[in-house]
Amino acid sequence: MGRYVVRRLLLMIPVLIGTTFLIYSMAWALPGDPFASRCGQRPCPESFVQAETERLHLDDPLPIQYGYFMLNMAQGDFGQTSNGESVLEAASRAFPVTVKLTVVAIAFEIVLGIGVGIAAALRRGGYLDGFFLFVSLVAISFPAFVIGYVLQYFLGVKLGLFSVTVGRGAPWEDLILPGFVLASLSLAYVLRLTRATLLETLKADHVRTAIAKGLPRGMVLRKHVVRNSLIPVITYIGADVGILLGGAIVTEGVFNIQGIGGMLFHALSIRENATVVSVTTLVVLVILLVNLLVDLLYARLDPRIRYE
Amino acid sequence: MKQRRLLAASALFAAGALALTACGGGSDDEGDGGGATNPDASITIYNVKPQNPLVPGNTNEVAGGVILDNTFRGLVDYNPDNAAPEMSMAESIESDDNITWTVKLKEGQTFQDGTPVDADSFINAWNWTAYGPNAALNSYFFSSFDGFEALNPADPDEDGPKEAPKPKTETLSGLKKVSDTEFTVKLASAQSFFPTMVGYTAFYPLPQAFFDDPEAFGKKPIGNGPFQVTEGNGDTGFTLDVWSGYKGEDKPKIAQAIFKTYTSDSAAYSDVLAGNLDFLEQVPPSALVDNQYQEESDGHFVDKAVGIIQTVTLPQYADGFKDNPDLGKALSLAIDRDTITKNVFNSARTPATGWVSPIVDGYKAGACGEFCTFDAAKAKEYFDKQDFKGPFSFSYNGDSPGNKETAEAVCNSIKNALGVECNAKPYVDFATLRADVVGRKMDNMHRSGWQMDYPHIQNFLEPLYLTGAGSNDGEFSSPKFDALIKEANAAEGDEALTLYQEAEAVLAENMTVIPLWYQAQQSVWSERLSNVKVTPRSTLDLSSVTATD
C-alpha cells in the first residue's frame, strides 16, 4: 500500500511536466498580440512591450521560455498577475472559494444522488421512482446556466429565500443555491447510476445467498448490496470532484463567485498566460491527488482490490 | 469577461463622458425610498477586476480608473453636469502661448498619509510615468511634453535583438519647479486644451510613499482625494472610506463606498433588483429589450450619452481602399443607421452624424453631411464612380455582446443597397483583432471605436486621424487635416473649436473612417440612493450621491 502510493506520487512528476508543457505551448500559441488587450484602441507603449517581452523571455524559443517558467515555479515563484499581485496570492484567495463550492456540490451529489438513487431502486416502478427519473431527466436536459438563472430569479430575486449572488468571503449559506445548481447535472447521473447498479446487485448471487441464509433485510442491504454498488458511483463522483475543483465558469459567473474558474477566464481573456499556466498546473496537481484518493477508496469498498 | 461594454474585450479604456441626457430617468428625487438620508451610509457599486496595479500612470481602463478617480484629485476635475474642467488641486493654470504653462497649486493640500501635495508630487509622478524603463501604460499622455523623446529613446533596430539604449536622464526637460506651490510645463507644441487634459487619471500626483514601495502602493494607493482605500483586492473588490482630511468643496455625503467585483453584469443586475447592490453603471443587453430595465428598476435609472463613438475603418494601406473617397461615401450612404440602432440596440445607440461625440464642447451636428444618412440610390451613384467592386468583409471581435449583430446588420445593409458581396468576419477576441489591425494586416473594413480620455473635441480627432498618430489604425493621412489640427491646438476658445470643426469636415471629404453611432449608458440603482449623477467618466458621482439606511 505504502509503496503503491509512493509509486503513484512519483508518476505524477512526468505527468505534471507533460501537462504544463502542453498548456504552456497552447497558451502562447493563441493567436493575437499578448499585450493588445491591455491597451485598448491605442497601441501599447514601446517601453511597455519591451519590458514585458523581457520579463516573460518572449524573445527566446519556446522550450527555453518554458524552462525559465519551470525553474521559477520550482522555486515557488508562480509569476505575477497584471495587477501586480503574485499569482499564488490570487490563487490562494480563489481556491478556497472553489473548494467550498465543490464541497457543497459534492454533498448534494452524495446525499441526494445516492440517497434518492437507493430509495428509487428499492421502490422500483413506484411513483417515487418515476417521479425522480423524470426530475433527473429535466436536470440532464437543461444547461446549468438555465437552471441557475431560473432558480436565481425565482428563489433569489422574487422570493428572497436565497442570496442572489455570493458575498465577500463566500459564506456557506450563500453557496447553497450555486452548489445545488452546480451539482444538478451530476446529481441526476449519480441518482441514475446508483439506482441501476443497485438493481443489478440486488439480483447478484451473493445477495440471494445472504437472503437465503436468513440475514435481516437491512443488513443485507447495508453490507452486501449498497457497499458493493458504490464503486462505479465513487468513480464518477471522484472524477467530478476533479472537474469541479478546476472551476465552474458558468455557475461562478451566474452567482458571481470569485473562484478558480473566473480567475482562469479573466486571465485567458487578457492573455495573462503566466497566470493561466500556473493556475492550471495547480488544478492538474489537485486532480491527480483526488484520483489517487479515489483509487485508494476502492480498496476500502471492495476487499478483492489490493494494492501492492 | 468582466465584459464591460463594447470597446475592448476585457475593459473600457480611458475616461468616460457626460451631459446631454438622452431621456432622463428618475434621478435626484429627494427622499425617494422612504427613509431619511444617512451621512454614515455605506453603498455598494458594481465594478470589474482592475487589470493593472492601482497606480495612475498604469491605469488605462475604467475598473481601476473608478477607484483612482475617487481616491485622487488632479489639477482639475470635471464638472459632473457639463464635463467642464474646474480647478481642483490647482489654483490656476495659465499660459501666454499655449506652449509654456504655469501651474499654481492651492496651499495646504495633503495626501492621506499627511505629506503635502506640492509641485514635486506632480513633477515626480509625471516623470515616473514618462520614463521609458518604468514601462508605464500611460506614458503616451506625456508624449507632447518637452523632453519625452529623451526619456524614451528609439530602439535602433525596431523589433530586433538590440535593446533600446537606456535614457540619459530621468526627468522631463519640460517640467520645472518654481516653488513648492508652483511649477511650469513646457510642451513640444502649442496645446490650448492642456488644462482639460490634466484632469485625466494619468496626471494625478503621487506621494513619496509610492516611490518607496511601488508594489505595495499599487495594492493600496495613498491618494489626495475624498476617499481612501481601506481594504480589498481586485478579486472581491475594494472598500473606500471617506477621508476626513479632504479639503475640496465636493465632500461626499456618504461614509463608505464598496466597489464589488463582478464577473457578469447579469449577476449584478439581479443584485440591484434584489436590493443587494446599489449602483450598476450599464445594464446587461438582455435588460435593454423593450427597455425592461426602466420598469424593473422601478424608475431608478438614467439613459444618457457618453463619450464613445463606434466607427468602421477602411484601411488606407489595402488595395482598393487607398485614396478612394467615393467608395467610402458609397459605403457610408449604404448603411441604414436608424434601422440598425433600433433593431439591434433597442435604440440604446444614436446614429452618428460626425466623428465627435455630442457630449463635448465643439460638437457640431451633421459634420458628416449627407453621407451619414441612408440613401441607397445615392450610394449606388458613388459606388459606380469608382473601380473597386468588392468583395467586402467587415471584421469584428466576437467577444463583446452586440458586435456580431452590428457587423451582420452593417454588411446586410451594404449588400442590399449596393448589390455587392459583404461578409461579417469574426475574430475570436479583441486581442486577436487588434494584433492584425496594429500589424496592418487588414485587407478590408474593420470595426473600430473610441472612448474619450478627457472631454475635449481634440481627443476625438488628433489621436485618431493625425498622420502617424498612435490610434490612426487605417493610416489616414491628410496634410490639410494635420495643418488644421495644429492650428486649432494653438488657438483658443471658439476660434479653436471652429478650427477643430473644419478639421472634422476634412474627414467627410475623404471618408476613410465611417461613423456608425454614438453610445449611451443605461444605469440603474437601488431605491436607497438619491441625487444620482453620472460623471463624464461614466461612473457614479460619489460627491453628490446620498443614501438612506
Explain this structure to me?
The complex is a heterodimer of chains A (308) and B (549). Chain A has a domain at 89-258: MetI-like fold (Orthogonal Bundle). Chain A is 75% helix and 0% strand. Chain A has 13 helices and no strands. The longest helix of chain A has 36 residues, at 87-122. The model of chain A has no long low-confidence stretch (mean pLDDT 86). Chain B is an alpha+beta fold and 549 residues long. Chain B is 27% helix and 20% strand. Chain B has helices at residues 62-71, 119-130, 148-151, 194-197, 208-212, 214-219, 265-273, 285-288, 292-296, 325-333, 337-345, 376-384, 403-418, 430-438, 458-465, 479-490, 493-510, and strands at 21-23, 42-47, 76-78, 85-87, 90-95, 100-105, 175-179, 182-186, 227-233, 237-242, 256-261, 279-280, 301-313, 349-351, 392-397, 422-427, 445-451, 513-525, 529-530, 546-547. Chains A and B meet through helix 2, helix 3, helix 5, helix 7 and helix 11 of A and helix 6, helix 7, helix 14 and strand 17 of B.
The 3D shape of chain B can be described as globular
| Number of beta strands of chain A | 0
The helix tally of chain A amounts to 13
CATH architecture of the domain at 89-258 in chain A: Orthogonal Bundle
Looking at this structure, what is the CATH superfamily of the largest domain in chain B?
Answer: Dipeptide-binding Protein, Domain 3
Approximately how much beta-strand content do the residues of chain B carry?
Answer: 15-25%
Largest sheet of chain B: 8 strands, mixed
Q: What is the β-strand count of chain B?
A: 20
CATH topology of the largest domain in chain B: Dipeptide-binding Protein, domain 3
Q: Mind telling me the CATH superfamily name of the domain at 89-258 in chain A?
A: MetI-like
- Main sheet properties of chain A: none
Strand content of chain A: under 5%
SSE succession of chain A = HHHHHHHHHHHHH
The DSSP helix count of chain B reads 17
What kind of assembly state do the chains in view correspond to?
Answer: heterodimer
For the termini of chain B, the CA-CA separation is: 32 Å
Briefly note the CATH topology name of the domain at 89-258 in chain A. MetI-like fold
Cα-atom Rg of chain A, whole angstroms?
24 Å
Domain count of chain B, please report it: 3
Low-confidence stretches of chain A: none
GO molecular function, one term (chain B): peptide transmembrane transporter activity
Pfam family, one (chain B): SBP_bac_5
InterPro entries (chain B): Peptide/Ni-bd, SBP_5, SBP_5_dom
Keywords (chain B): Signal
